[in-house]
Please model this.
Amino acid sequence: MLRIAWRNLLHERVRMLVSTGGVALSVLLIFFMNGVFAGSEEHAVAYMQNQPAELWLMQAGVENLHMSTSLLPPDALARARQVDGVREATGLLNAGGALELGEEPAYSYLFAVDEDAPFGQAWEMAVGDPDPGLRELVIDVALARRYGLEIGDTVTVLGRALTIAGLSKETFGIATSISWVNKAALSSLIGVPTGADSYILVQLEPDADKEAVAHALQEAVPEANVLTREAFIASDQEMIRQMGADIIRAMTLVAYVVGLLVVGLTIYTATVERAREYAVLKALGAQSGQLMRAVFAQALLSSVLGFGAGVILAVVAAGLVGRLLPEMLVLVRPEEVARQAPVILAVTALAALLPLSRVLRLDPMVVFRT
Amino acid sequence: MNTNDHVLDLRHVSKVYGSGHTAVTAADHVSLRVRRGEIVLIMGPSGSGKTTLLSMAGLLLRPTEGQILLNGHDAGRLNQRQLAGLRLHSIGFVFQAYNLLGALTARENVEVVLNIAGVKGKIARRRAIELLEMLGLGHRLEHKPADLSGGEKQRVAIARALANNPPLILADEPTGNLDSKTGQEVMELLCCGLGRDQGRAIVIVTHNDRLRQIADRVLWLEDGRLSESGGQGGQSVVQAASLHN
Model:
């Protein structure tokens, strides 16, 4: 029966293309949407992942870097540095701000660390200085290209004109964009006391016990919430997931429905057109189970081919998007492919139910009609 | 005569479509016994009930009343699954429209009924090739129905009908789409070489008067009633005892 399914599929090349193409497009849509979402997540936590800080301090009650406001006392950094097991600590001041780049302002997170900070700056520079001076800023190279900006050009941020001193890499995503400004300048722009930080990034001594240091930091800076990097990243990813989950879920559902309809309709049409042949098999003595297997096999073959083609298309599309739109990271992860495969196959099985019922109701006496 | 010699035994079989004043009787208390190796021709005008009779004999249609015994099995006592199994192993069908599967090659069309019966792989392949070669289609094994002539298609259909070595062949207008020469050749293969000589019973429903020559018995069906018509061409003629009514 598998042979009949396979041959029926190959016999009708156009239908096979429509069927597998429909599934492939649905799969592409699913992976692309999930890929964009996964890419956004990756972009959003890139700063945490690319700093050597294993522990993060933030205002009590705060658990996120994004969509949060955190402010620690000006002496918190000094207290944190005194804790045993702390190798280095950097104070990060951040705020949201609009960069006036064109007709519409571009929203960006403004990050600022002390000029002598051991880390906390942009982790990879395309060109220029990662430590902006008082009237300078660092923006992402992709953002600069989009607006035709270069080193030395001026951008107005929070009402102040700043000169581009450097261009960072991998800091511009569709959900998150990071620009670096001078810490003293940012303090005065947002009106916080000089020396105050939003977050403190803590690098540990190589042999330090992370939990013990976290506990000691909590005691030294009781007004802070101390999180490990992993917990901090997980917390931000969870928040982003919650923000985008409904949209992604809706789009994925649309893709599933499209796939279901495409496979269902093509298999149904193929089955109706081959109804006489199924009736012949029934007349010759095929059992209902055998006919069911043929119809299911045809639907599954369409689905497997379409799934494979869809994954390939998604990988190609992700690569193309990465080249054309650097701010858009589309991740097609193997674990996502493994997670979606059984769902797509289940959808296909569902799509085969309608043609199946038609086959089971076939009157084998049609074999006598000419 | 021993009843075990009868492959097919229809006993007072009737089929009525509809009910009340719109009821149509397609078969009216038909009785027919067909022995192993016997070739029975059923003729009659259009609408006389030939297809209904063949469908009931082929276990595709349950009679309104009466009993059908196939190879000793009472069809009325069997469920759909058992009927399908009995059809698969006991009946070979040859249709006017060939009814080959368009996506499969000639060999695969024969193999498919073997596969349904659980015969797989090389054994099924060898059997299919053997049958097609016997029918002169050794050079057309891998051709699809669309590439075969009418006569070739019908020979593939005959090979398929014989694949599971059934004791009964039911043929519905097997020469209906063939020219007279090809029709003659096909019927000789079906009836003489692979039919009667191998002990198979063959029931042929046809309008083709020339087929009288190869029949052991010729029956006439009209208004759902079966009557003896008499054979022609020097073949043995039906025995009255074969007709219950």
